[in-house]
What does this fold into?
Amino acid sequence: MPYGFTLFIMCLSYSILGFSQDTYEYFGALKLNDSALISYKIIVTENNGLVNGYSLTDLGGAHETKSYLTGYFDDEKDELEFVEKGIVYTKSSVTKYDFCFVHFKGKLKRLDERQEIHGNFKGLYDDGNQCIDGEMRLASMFKFNKKTERLDRRIDRNPLVKKEDKARINLKQALDSLQMKFVNKDERITIFSTSDVIQVSVIDAGQEDGDRISLWANGEIVLDNYEVTNSAREVTIPLHREQTVVKIQAENNGRIGGNTVQLKINDTSGLLETNTNFKSGESAEFVFVKRNGS
It folds into this structure.
């Protein structure tokens, strides 16, 4: 997607907000002090003022990172505060000790779709040293989707827009593409885990078309030239080492498009879902790093 179009999608969030009843899901951008914009999403639950969940930074980008998030909402003081506490996974090549964690505190009158999360944040390393500050502006996915649907309808009805351009310019589709979790060829995703084992499930991401994959754990074959179907195949992989490298490789091109596989990786901290769309011979790696439990 062109950079300018991605920037437009992020900037739409500056005017809208909303909540679901149980889970609060916001999408928007972090504006750094150097004027750079980074896509940002949080998914949280609130219980008696306590807020817990996850954040996603640089969605679909080379440095996509998912972090734990915790905080509180004070409806008497009209304040929302949360901090990122650690890495779930990252596509970035740097270590977890290099990460700059968001610390946010701002005014929020109430939890409903008429409000927005808007304010300044501080970025701190694990040791408390300051890294980079900036501005946060987020909107609910519900209202965000409604806004893009209305804009798509306006474009579709505009007689000045060519038919082929109407088919190409689809804001809702562009937004959906940012929400889908893909692992690209040659990517190396680092996942921090306290588990002794992980469960890996593979399933065809679309229509069964003969996709075959191989799976290795630390160089040892786990699935050899396995044909993926719409029935999930589950394998258990031990995490006995400080680092365990799981590699997935496409062994062919399916009869429909490329080699499309959905992976579900489950450990004690939760579930990671991702999709591949590889050509024959292309691969990616998941590096599981053991960390102490908390």
Summary: The first helix runs from residue 3 to 11. Confidence is low (pLDDT under 50) at residues 1-21, 174-180. The chain has four helices and 17 strands. The first strand starts at residue 23 and ends at 32.
